[in-house]
User: Fold these one by one.
Assistant:
Number 1:
Amino acid sequence: MDNKTLDECRAVYLTAEDLRVAASILYNAYHDDPFFVEALATSDKFAYEQKLRAAIREELNTLWQQKQALIGLFDQERLVGVACVATQEVPLGEGRYWHWRLKMLLGTGWQSTQAIMKKESTIMELLPSNRCGILQFIALALNEQGKGLGHQLVQAVVSWCDEQPELDGIGVFTTQESHTHLLTQHDFVSLGELVIGSVPGQLLFYAGQQDE
């Protein structure tokens, strides 16, 4: 992708009308994610895919309703990338609202819902303070990968973080070396190796750079 195309991309907050396309991008990007493969474990591929769609749909809707940061990367009018940050201003992990638990339970099952909450609780316990967010999702459309847009999407996330005076930074659990490499190029640092369930990865953290 040339610089002209990169310059034409813009990062803005998603609208309600963007959520369906955002869910599709996330579904394709996270289809083989090791955490979801384990958390939504089933021998039935169709059942797994239904559970993954439900988990992503419910999380997107919840983040939207709770006015959390849903950042979209657009090439003109076309949504090509999505990043979702949840802050601890809303309940996460074991503190999740009962209606989120109920909808996630109906969509994914009890064990899967528990696994998702446990992941969040594990991450939050290791972050530097309770004023940190979690990068829940970050993904590009499959046909937009390898064009340099990943850097632009991550930069949008860190720029947003820098503008939040109440936020000390953002944590994210990565399971792929390529993702770790991308994020560390944008000042994410490793807080150490972490195993969630039986899935190994790195806990990365970006410290917000708010002006004094």
Number 2:
Amino acid sequence: MPTPYLTLAEVESTAREAHRTQTDKAGRPYVEHLAAVAEGVRIRGGSDEQIAAAWLHDAVEDGALSRQWLDEAPLPQQVKEMVLAVTKRDGEDLSAYTGRILATPGALLIKESDLAHNADPDRLAVLEPATRTRLTAKYAQVRGLLGLPGAELPADQQDPANPAGG
């Protein structure tokens, strides 16, 4: 008899445990980011599979869970594919990364929610100005490559010699 899939509650618990000692760039518990991304996927109409992938979206990239764990986990293949789609690979350029997200059914919603939380002004406000500026530009560039709204930089962060930001 096949092993049943992990429930959403079990996926959440696994992600919380895997990331329990990590903090974000502002020193906040990293699980707050995971919860916000999962909730963002939910309120955007995401499926249970997308919500599960949102909980796990940084697990392999951050080394909180291994690729082997993901490969062997009792999860639908679609969840695994979405997690891997949003997992940045060493040395990978941004166009390959965003192309993989766009080519993987369901992954764009996860990345959209991730970017929305990462770019939250309240979350960015606690960072050093140089870090805030760098990340804001990076998130806008990724949004642009993914065809998401909000790819424009705020006027105070645009380079006057290159107002398009690219």
Number 3:
Amino acid sequence: MSASLPYVLILYYSRHGATRAMAERLAAGVESVRGVEARLRTVPPVSPTCEAVDPEIPEEGAIYASLDDLRHCAGLAIGSPTRFGNMAAPLKHFLDGTSELWLGGALIDRPATAFTSTSSLHGGQEATLLTMLVPLLHHGMVYAGLPYSETELMATTGGGTPYGASHLAGKRSDRPLDDEERSLAHAQGRRLARLALALAAMREEGS
């Protein structure tokens, strides 16, 4: 990764791999835009057992996010499986710890988006995406969904919403992303990257 290029942070929690697969498609969309890079990060699980401690580096996949990953990003995508119409506890736990960034206004005027995966077709995808955007708005971020110029929104029989990309993982959480879901996740990453560059230029002009 070049130290000179701005990056879009793709921050996710994935239990069975579906949300991780979506994150990788968003990353490909980000990196299809010249002048910006994708940075994939995850969060550790939370446990009701106080003694449970995860290793500092996951055995596979992206490394764990730090506040600095968030502080210096040009844009942000957050992804989570749905938990009763809301994000999973590990991602919320990380976001709950970002008060110092909120107090300093570190993320104001940076673009953000969200993505999710559910095991059932009507499993709370839209509710999850809408609740995920709330902390982003508190941070002063500019939320970007998926416009209907992405024609897959009208054709999908799996996931895909104007509030953000989504995926139908199936009752065993083993259904791979279909063509429409892959295309929409890629488009969401591409749009976020373009907005990240445009809003960065706007912030520089106003400084």
